[in-house]
């Protein structure tokens, strides 16, 4: 019975560790997808001068997951006649990223009006910041993984020892 309890505790801590690792990977992938989508948005504005609703829809088809849903939500809101800034802010609230990333992307909505150069400059600043954030996140990943592993399995080992 004690051995079964120990195995269950170890399995529970393993599941918690794996869940945190999945969350970490999902957020990191979302950062990369957002950066790529915003770079493509800037390119679409510069090169093709495509209207934003159609550009958001095309970019949404080229992406996957939450970034695709974000771009599709933006396109649908603009096609319904909503203003860009409120639609942008509403869509940004649904992004599963850290608060500082969400705020920076939401602020970009204010820079999406004006002439082409101002818009592209705003997008370029945000994508540059997102790239730095992604690089920082990757550097911290190894330390975080090591710490999370140590905490989860040390806690499980302590509980198993107490059970035995």
Straight-line N-to-C gap: 10 Å
Number of strands: 0
Strand content: under 5%
Sheet having the most strands: none
Structural class: mainly alpha
State Rg.
21 Å
Number of domains: 1
What is the N-to-C order of secondary-structure elements (H for helix, E for strand)? HHHHHH
Helix content: over 70%
Helix count from the secondary structure assignment: 6
Shape: elongated
Low-pLDDT ranges: none
Estimate the mean pLDDT confidence: 84
Give the gist of this structure.
87% of the residues lie in helices and 0% in strands.
Please, could you describe this protein's structure?
The termini are close together. Helices cover 87% and strands 0% of the residues. By secondary structure, the chain is mainly alpha-helical. The chain contains 6 helices and no strands. The chain has one domain (2-163).
Topology:
Blueprint (H helix, E strand, L loop, with lengths): L1 H47 L3 H11 L2 H15 L4 H9 L6 H13 L4 H48 L1
Helix pairs in contact: 1-2, 1-6, 2-3, 3-4, 4-5, 5-6
